[in-house]
Automatic annotation (TrEMBL):
Chain residue ranges for the region called Disordered: 461-491
Function according to Swiss-Prot or TrEMBL: Plus end-directed microtubule-dependent motor protein that regulates the length of motile cilia by mediating depolymerization of microtubules at ciliary tips.
Amino acids binding ATP: G113, A114, T115, G116, A117, G118, K119, T120
Membership in a protein family: Belongs to the TRAFAC class myosin-kinesin ATPase superfamily. Kinesin family.
UniProt entry keywords in alphabetical sequence: ATP-binding, Cell projection, Cilium, Coiled coil, Cytoplasm, Cytoskeleton, Microtubule, Motor protein, Nucleotide-binding
GO terms, biological process: microtubule-based movement
Record protein name field: Kinesin-like protein
Gene Ontology molecular functions: ATP binding; microtubule binding; microtubule motor activity
Entry GO terms, CC: cilium; microtubule
Length: 623
């Protein structure tokens, strides 16, 4: 996928829907060890949703038990017995989440249950009978493939385990323990986790196998290959339309597939030392998970405080529990009487989870591309047109312009109209910049004229002052007043001013001409556009294949973008030109202003001189 460096406006999708946590129950077959222990089957599936758990102890001396019914019924969204296949479990729990993830929704599937109850079997499965991981990833890539004609996808995965409250990257275990961080929007991120981008299911499968080899597994009294950690496979699907538009939508769906470590009783597992410590951590995080589920299922008005912070597991599952995710819990139990307590606990836990409600919304980002990216977008569209044309040729189908004599002529007219519009638009833009230049010349000319007029006035004032001085000197000598004629400005300066005025008139005539020409061109452009839209309406009726229609709509899109691009570029350069010219005018005004200040000062001096002189005369006359 091309890097989308862009000016983007990210808009939250507010279209949220309530989603109740789906709870499934799987009862595994009784195993040889349990049979050897003379265990009886105490779990019975009544129908697709209901199971019954029988209390194996029939002790008449135990008053408490005797008074209680020995049977307890539980209802779930779906219940599987020991005969259910991996395919059955996958189809009824996970398969329908996949399209949502591709479309940009979050989803979580987690396996819960006591140690040895069958969680890893459901999630990972065996080579010959793979579990949910493999089936989900296969279908995910199939789904992506099916819509890759219209969309471009990027799939990445990470795989981690939470072992003794520490997070380990299963795809890159050497980097040490990782931290959970909360981003500004409250989303949970794992700092430094390796995210592998993959393009096919096989590659992801190899990564999964590699990760599983790293997972902490040890034999315990209850399971010869007990998972001592919670394993979290995270798959992110980012999706965007194959064809860029100026306003694009990006979607990203996140899928969590989680194989929890099993809850266990130290007595049952006979764990000691390290295994016992692991068990304590496992139980602690599962207890935190149970507390969250309890609080979430209790809250009527969604006001309850949910303490996700008690364990790394609950922090990581924050969105999956009560947040933005379609979530499925698959609870696992053994049917054996020897596991009665564990099974009852799991069933109670799962029963509570049925009441958890999430609010799901599509993860969507609205992107508005910057003008500088128009060229890229247009190139993208052209590539897409090329691809579709090549495909049409491959299929030995006719292109739009070969789809029949009538459509050929319509198609030709449409392309001709596009070309004509581009040319007209180009001329309009040239006229725009010519009329801007004329406008600026006119304002400069106005400035020059006012400069000339100012200079004339200055010169006149100077001459007047000099003549006054001379006149006064004469009066001084003869004692007679004399009328001082004010000289008119000399003719060469006058001709400069006249020439500037002539130039201004010529520029104004030119500007009017340009405006008339622009109006004519704009009218022609409007006519060409309406002809093209008539053609666009009639052409699809002549086209028969989806690809032909797609090519036509892409060609129209390219044309619109090219026109828009041209307008935007012209506007930008006009704005730059205007800015530059304004800057120059401003500088000239500043100069003019400085000149005015200078003149005012010199006038002040002249007035002061005259005032001193008048004072002197009055003193002389008085004496
Ligand atoms: N549905 C099933 N059909 C056949 N075998 C099963 C089934 N479920 C579990 N098993 C077998 O039972 C044993 C224990 O299962 P598994 O390892 O999946 O349990 P677990 O719940 O993951 O245990 P732990 O929490 O200790 O890791 C395995 O040998 C597994 O192959």
């Amino acid at each position: 996928m091309r890097d989308v460096s862009r000016s983007q406006s990210v808009k939250e999708n507010v279209d949220t829907k309530e989603h109740q946590l789906t709870v499934a129950l799987r009862v595994r077959p009784i195993n040889e060890a349990e049979l050897a222990d003379e265990a009886k089957i105490i779990v019975h599936r009544i129908d697709q949703k209901m199971v019954v758990l029988m209390d194996p102890v029939n002790d008449p001396n135990n008053i408490l038990r005797a008074n209680r019914s020995r049977e307890k019924m539980y209802m779930f969204d779906v219940a599987f017995d020991s005969k259910a296949t991996q395919e059955d479990v996958y189809i009824s729990t996970t398969k329908e989440l996949i399209d949502g993830v591709i479309a940009g929704y979050n989803a979580t599937v987690f396996a819960y249950g006591a140690t040895g109850a069958g969680k890893t079997y459901t999630m990972l499965g065996t080579d010959s009978d793979p579990g949910i991981y493999v089936r989900t990833l296969n279908d995910l890539f199939k789904g992506i493939e099916a819509s890759s004609d219209r969309k471009i996808y990027q799939v990445s995965m990470s795989y981690l385990e939470i072992y003794n409250e520490m997070i380990r990257d299963l795809l890159n275990p050497t980097i040490g323990f990782l931290d959970l961080r909360e981003d500004a929007k409250g989303g949970i991120q794992i700092a430094g986790i390796t995210e592998f981008s993959t393009s096919n299911a096989d590659e992801i499968m190899l990564l999964l196998l590699k990760g599983n080899r790293e997972r902490t597994q040890e034999p315990t009294g209850a399971n010869s290959a007990s998972s001592r950690s919670h394993a979290v496979l995270q798959v992110t699907v980012r999706q965007r339309s194959r064809v860029h538009a100026i306003h694009d939508e990006l979607h990203f769906g996140r899928l969590f597939l989680i194989d929890l470590a099993g809850s266990e009783r130290a007595a049952q597992t006979q764990n000691r030392g390290k295994r016992m410590m692991e068990g304590a951590h496992i139980n602690r995080s599962l207890l935190a998970l149970g507390n969250c589920i309890n609080a979430l299922s209790d809250r009527g008005g969604r006001a309850n405080y949910i303490n996700y912070r008690d364990s790394k597991l609950t922090r990581l599952l924050k969105d999956s529990l009560g947040g933005n995710s379609r979530t499925v819990m698959i609870a696992h139990i053994s049917p054996a009487s020897t596991s009665f307590e564990e099974s009852r606990n799991t069933l109670t836990y799962a029963d509570r989870a049925k009441h958890v409600k999430n609010r799901v919304k599509k993860n969507q980002m609205n992107v508005t591309y910057h003008i500088t990216q128009y060229t890229d977008i247009i190139a993208d569209l052209r590539r897409e047109i090329h691809r579709l044309r090549a495909r049409l040729q491959e299929q030995n189908m006719v292109e739009p312009h070969q789809a029949g004599i009538q459509s050929k002529s319509l198609y030709g007219k449409l392309m001709h109209s596009f070309h004509e519009q581009m040319q007209l638009q180009k001329h309009v833009m040239e006229l725009n910049s010519a009329s801007l230049a004329a406008h600026l010349n006119i304002s400069q000319q106005h400035l020059a004229i006012s400069n000339f007029e100012q200079e004339d006035l200055d010169k006149m004032a100077k001459r007047h002052a000099e003549q006054m001085k001379e006149g006064n000197a004469a009066t001084d000598g003869s004692g007679q007043d004399s009328d001082i004629p004010i000289e008119e400005p000399s003719s060469p300066e006058l001709s400069d001013l006249a020439m500037a005025r002539e130039e201004l008139t010529a520029l104004s005539v030119e500007q009017n001409k340009l405006a008339t020409l622009k109006m004519e061109l704009e009218q022609k452009l409007t006519d060409a556009k309406s002809r093209a839209s008539q053609l666009k309406e009639s052409l699809p009726l002549q086209l028969h294949s989806v690809d032909q229609h797609q090519i036509l709509s892409l060609l129209c899109k390219v044309h619109e973008l090219e026109m828009e691009n041209m307008t935007l570029q012209s506007r930008t350069s006009l704005r730059d030109g205007l800015f530059h010219q304004h800057h120059q005018v401003l500088r000239r005004c500043q100069k003019h202003c400085a000149l005015c200040c200078q003149l005012i000062n010199s006038q002040r001096k002249v007035i002061l001189g005259m005032w001193h002189y008048a004072k002197y005369i009055s003193v002389v006359l008085y004496v």
